[in-house]
Amino acid sequence: MIYIRVLCSSCAKVIRRHSALLSKWIDHTGVTTRSWIHTTAATCNQSKKIDLDEFSPDRIRNFSIIAHIDHGKSTLADRLLEYTGTISRSADNKQVLDKLQVERERGITVKAQTASLIYQYQDTTYLLNLIDTPGHVDFSYEVSRSLSACQGVVLLVDANQGVQAQTVANFYLAFERDLVIIPVLNKIDLKGARPDEVCQQMESLFDIGKSDILQISAKLGTGIDLVLKAIIERLPCPQADRNAPLKALIFDSWYDKWRGAISSIALIDGTIKKGTKIKSNYTGKVYEVQETGIMYPNEQETNTLYAGQVGYLICGMKMTKEAQIGDTIYQDMVPVKSLPGFKPAKPMVFAGIYPVDQSEYSALRSAIEKLLLNDSSVSVNIDSSAALGQGWRLGFLGLLHMDVFSQRLEQEYDASVIITSPNVPYKVKIIGAKNIKQYKGEEITILNPSHFPDPSIISECSEPVVLSTIITPDSYMGSVTSLFLSRRGQLKDQLYIDNKRIMFKVVFPLNEIIVDFFDELKSITSGYASFDYEDYGYESANLVKVDFALNGLIVDELAMICHSSKVLENSKRVVAKLKEAIPRQLFEIAIQAKLSSKILVRDTIKAYRKDVLAKCYGGDITRKMKLLRQQAEGKKKMKRYGNVDVPKDAFISVLKK
Which residues bind GTP (predicted)? Predict the structure, then answer.
C-alpha cells in the first residue's frame, strides 16, 4: 500500500490517505490536490479538542466589529480568523461568517455571527471572542444585542468613504454602554484613500486622537497584527467569577430542525456544562444542558463553558421564543438577580404578503413559519383581501429587512409572493371607545389602512417619527435641504465634520422615507450622501384616510392613510396608476379618490367604441340615428348592471413596493 503524507498547516499533524482512493476521489469531484489539502487541514483544525479551562477571565477579550455598511467588517473578520489559525489561509476565504446566501450575494451582513479565536501574544495564549455585526440601519437591533456581550469594539472606518451616518450611530451605541473603542482605518491601499482627512473627521466627531487610530488594509492583511495587539492591550477583560453562582445572558439564538433552539450566551459568572439543570428567568422553565461549545468558527463542542466566555448552548428548547433575547439563565434552585435585558424588536414597516396563487397558501405559510424560527424580529398578523385572497401582514425593522425576508422566501423555499406597498403603524385615539364594542381601548394601532376608523369618532391621530442623520458634501447642501423640507422634515441640528462635509440631524415622519427617500437622496448627491435613522417616538399629525372608488364602488385594498398636506398629490399619483393598469371595458369606468364624501380626483377610462354605422351607406339619416340611440341605451344598461372586473395584475402594479 502506498500512502500520501500531507502536513496540515493548521496543527502540524501528518494526515495519511490511500493514494488510489485519493486519486479516484479527485477525479470524481474535479478538485485539485491543493484544495483537498486545504479542506483536510480545515477539517483537522475543527476536530481538535479545545480545553477552555486554561483561559481565566484575565486572558479573555470579548469584542465586536462595528461599522457602516460596506466598510470591510466581514473582510477584517476573515483576516483575523486566518491570522489566528482558526481557518486555513486561502483565496476562497471571503465572508466566512456570512452564512446566508442573501448575505453572500449582496455582500452585506444581515445576522450577527460569533467566532472564538485563540491567539498567542508575548508567550501568553488568549481567547478572543469576535462578534461580526451588520452595518445597515435596519439591523441596529442586532448590533445593540451584540454589544451587550462585549467589553470593547473595533470601530471600522473606510479611508476612502470616510465617516458615514451609520458610523456615527454605532459609535454612540458603544459609547452609551461605556465600551472601550479601538478606532481602525481600513482600505488604506486604495488609490482614493484619504487617511489624513478621515482621521480629522474622526477627531472632530468622536474626539479620537490620530495617534490612537490604526491604519490597515483588511483585504491585503496589512496591520492585522496591530489590531490583535490593540485588542489584547486596550480592551479590559470581563469582570467574571468562576466560583460565583451561574449567571448567563442570552444575546442571540437560531433554530436547528434536529436540535431545536440554539442560544448564544455570554457567561457572567459561574460555569456551565453538559447535564447541568438550568432555569430561564423569563419563562420559568427548567432545562437540562445537552451540549455547550464555542464557534470555532463553526460549532465546536467543549466540555464546559467558564465565566467570562462566549459560546453556544443546547438544552432542549423547542422554539426560539423560549430562548428569549436578553433572558438570564441560572442554575436551578440557585436564583440570581436578572441581568438588564433588551427592549423587544420594534417593527417599523408593515407590508402584506400574499401567494401569487391561492393554491400555494399552505406552502407559503409553512415557509414563513420556518423563517420566523430564525428571525424573531418579524411580527405576523393574518390578513385577507378580496382582490389578492388570504395572506399575512408582516412587520419588519425596515425596507432592507423586508427585501431580505422576501428574497429568503424565494431562494430557500421557492415561494412566489406578492408584497404590497409598505406602510407604517399609526395610533388613533377614539372618542367614547368604551361605548363602542369593536374598540377595546381608547388608543388603537392601525396596521392596515382599510381599518382606519370613521373621522367622526377620532379625537387625535399620531404617526411614527424618526431622528435621522444625513452626511453629505456641502456642495449639495441646497438640494438636500429642499428634499427634506418636501418630506416634512424638521431640521434639529447641522455641523461641519470637516472642510467639505456637513452632517444634518433631521426629524422625519417615517412614512415619508420608507419607500424612495434614500434613492432620491443618493440621486441628488451623486451617491455621496449617507443616511441613518433611529426611532423617535410618535407625534400628533393631521392624518386622513383616502378611499378609491371604481364606478362608485369603494375598493378597500386601495385605501391609504396620509397627511392632509399630501392628500391631493398622492391621490393624483394613485389614480394615474389605476388608469394605466385597469383594462378598458365596453362601458366607461370612473376612477375617483374620495376623502369621506368629497371627491378629490376623478379620471375616466374611456369605453371601447363599436362602429354600429359601419354597414350603413347612403339611405335615410333616421336609420343611423336609430342605431346610435340603441347603442347609447345599451351602454347605459351595461354600466348600470355591469361590474368592473379589475385583474390581479392591476392591483399588483398599484400596491407593489
Answer: 67-74, 132-136, 186-189
| 600: exposed, middle or buried (Cβ count in 10 Å: 0-12, 13-18, 19+) | middle
- Please tell me whether 69 is known to bind a ligand: yes
Each residue of 435-457: pLDDT tens digit? 555 565 578 888 888 888 888 88
Does the annotation flag 187 for ligand binding?
A: yes
* 428 Cα distance to chain centroid: 28
223 in a known ligand binding site: no
Q: How confident is the model at residue 649 (pLDDT cuts 50, 70, 90)?
A: low
pLDDT tens figures, 204-238: 888 888 889 999 998 888 899 999 999 999 999 98
By DSSP bridging, strand 389-396 and strand 379-385 are antiparallel
The answer to whether the annotation marks 71 as part of a ligand binding site is: yes
Q: What is the pLDDT of residues 262-281, one digit of tens each?
A: 888 889 899 998 888 999 88
Beta-carbon-side half-sphere exposure of residue 36 (alpha carbons within 13 Å):
20
In DSSP terms, which residues pair with 295 in a beta bridge?
Answer: 299
* C-alpha cell at position 214: 490604526
- 28 is an annotated ligand-binding site residue: no
pLDDT at 507 over 90: yes
135 carries a ligand binding annotation? yes
136 annotated binding-site participant: yes
167 labelled as ligand-binding? no
The pLDDT value recorded for residue 655 is 55
**CB-based contact 144:397 (threshold 8 Å):** no
What is the average pLDDT value for the chain, to the nearest integer? Answer: 80
**Residue 465 CB coordination number (10 Å):** 23
Q: Report whether 619 belongs to an annotated binding site.
A: no
pLDDT for res 474: 87
Pairwise CA distance, residues 15 & 85, whole Å = 18
User: Binding residue per annotation — 73?
Assistant: yes
Domains in the chain (CATH in brackets) are 3-47 (no CATH), 52-234 (3.40.50.300), 247-331 (2.40.30.10), 349-417 (3.30.70.870), 426-534 (3.30.70.240), 544-655 (3.30.70.2570)
Residue 639 annotated as binding site: no
CA 95, CA 81: separation in Å to the nearest integer? 11
Q: Please indicate if the annotation marks 186 as binding a ligand.
A: yes
